[in-house]
Structure formats: structure tokens, C-alpha cells
Amino acid sequence: MLKKRNWLVCGVLGLAMSLLACGGAEKEATEGAISAAQTAINAASSEAAKYVPDQLKSAQDTLQGAKDAWTKGDYSAALSAAKEATKKASDLVTAAAAKKQEWMKDWTSLAESMPKSMEQIKARLDAYSHGASMPEGMDKSVLATAKDQYALLKQAWTDATVAARQGNLGDAKQKASGIKDMLAKLREMLGIKS
Q1: Domains of the chain: which residue ranges?
Q2: What span, in angstroms and rounded, lies between the C-alpha atoms of 59 and 89?
Q3: Calpha distance 45→53 (Å, rounded)
Q4: SS3 call for 157
Q5: Is the distance from CB of 65 to CB of 46 less than 8 angstroms?
Q6: Is residue 15 scored above 70 in pLDDT?
Q7: What is the DSSP letter of 1?
Q8: DSSP sequence for 28-56
């Protein structure tokens, strides 16, 4: 009987020690997965913040969920969330690169067309200033207003170009879209077709 009890106690102690060892290993593995997810998100965050901020927030929220589960001792949920956060970090890199390429294409198109439109307007303003026949409804006060608007547009285009050179394509595109609308109105005011 004593032998049976010793075997039983040894068996229970062995099982308990195995569970503790497994629990410690699970905790360490989960902690490592969370750390890896954090590193992956940190590496992707600079570009993702510019191009896909919503996806970045989702990845960060998933990582925070992993950390919260780890703190509560739910290592299985924490490990699952950490793996998901790592996948989202990988997706961030791809999505940010695609969005950046799309915005670069849009910016390149604007950078080609905008200066041409600005030159047309400048040439027309110069012609009217030197006595060329102005369109109906235009007089010297309207011409002065058009010149002021052109000066504002020129500065806005310079600001957009600087933003693009600094890598802030979203900001550059936003500034350029406002310029496009103003340019269209100014072209109409000056009687420039097409």
C-alpha cells in the first residue's frame, strides 16, 4: 500500500512538474511571439502611418489584445493574437508599398500636367497685361484678381512639390487637388479653352 501511495505521489508530482514546465514554455513562446509581432509592426509603422493608417491601427489593436491576454495569463489567446498581429504587420508592408506606388503614379501625372497649365495661365496673364484683347466680361480689376490668384496657386504648387520631395505624397496630392480646382476656375476666367 505504501509503495502504491509513493508511486501515486511521484506520479502526481511528475505530472505537476511537467505541467509547470509546459506552462513556462508556453509563456515564453507567447512572450516571444508578442515581441516578434511588436518588432514587425514597428518596422512597418513609418510607411504604414503615411499610406495605410487604418490598417496600422488594426495591427496595433490586435497586438494590444495579445498583450492584454498575456497579462491575464491566457497564453493560448495571446499567442493566437500575436500571430494575427504579425500577419497584419506583413500585410501592412505590402499594402503601404502598393498605396505608395499608386500615389507616386498620381503625383507623376500631376507633376507633368500642372506646370503646363500654370505656364498657359502665366502666358495669358502676360498677354493681357501687355494689351492683348481680353475676353468679354474681363477688365483690369478682374485681371488683377486673376494675377493674385495665380500668385497664390504658384505658391500652393511650390508647397505641394516640397511636400512630395519630402515623401509626404498624401499631403502633396491633397494640396494639388485643391490647386487643380482653382486652376480650372482661373482658366475659365481667362478664357483658356481645353
Answers
A1: 11-97, 100-189
A2: 6
A3: 9
A4: helix
A5: no
A6: no
A7: -
A8: HHHHHHHHHHHHHHHHHHHHHHHH-HHHH
- DSSP string for 137-173: T--HHHHHHHHHHHHHHHHHHHHHHHHHHTT-HHHHH
How many other CB atoms are found less than 10 A from the CB of residue 33? Answer: 21
Residues 6+ apart with CB under 8 A from 47: 92, 93, 96, 97, 100
C-alpha cell at 159: 508647397
Please list, in sequence order, all residues whose beta carbon lies within 8 angstroms of the beta carbon of residue 152, skipping any fewer than 6 positions away.
182
* Nearest CA among 177, 172, 158 for reference residue 51: 172
At residue 194 the predicted structure's pLDDT band, cuts being 50, 70 and 90, is low
For cell 496630392, what's the residue? Answer: 173
φ and ψ at 164, to 5 degrees?
-65, -40
- How many Cα neighbours within 13 Å face the side chain of 93? 11
- Residues 101-153 pLDDT 10s: 999 898 888 888 888 889 999 999 998 889 888 888 788 888 899 899 999 99
